[in-house]
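Quick log. Single chain, no ligands specified.
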Amino acid sequence: MIENVTSRDFAELLVVWEDSVRATHDFITDADIAEFKPMIMAHAFPAVTLRCIKGDNQKILGFIGVAENKIEMLFVLNKCRGQGIGKQLLNFAINELEATKVDVNEQNPLAVEFYKHMGFEITSRSPLDDMGKPFPILHMSL
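-> predicted structure:
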């Protein structure tokens, strides 16, 4: 079941984010993660509509964040990948939050293929991410 997220959940979301990033973004360093974490807590989480899926123990297994029809974040615990959590969250974002766009790190081919499988197409590419780091971004749309 898709659930709302409150600011009380931000610390747990950050744990899910880091676990997912370490498993899927091998181009991001420990220093990058340390730099990103406070910005995510202070700026990224509050700027998006967040939804999550929790396990039987009420722990967050995955979450999605949407702003202005764009998926800004979708992260799933590594141990839960391949179980349909990301697909459920993405379908909710498309159907309920009217998401039609997403930016994906080009260096994360599993994510690129996931979004393609879900109907997104690459519309353009940027050589740098939003922070000016050399992590190419693929801009995708439905």
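Helices lie at 10-24, 30-44, 85-96, 109-117.
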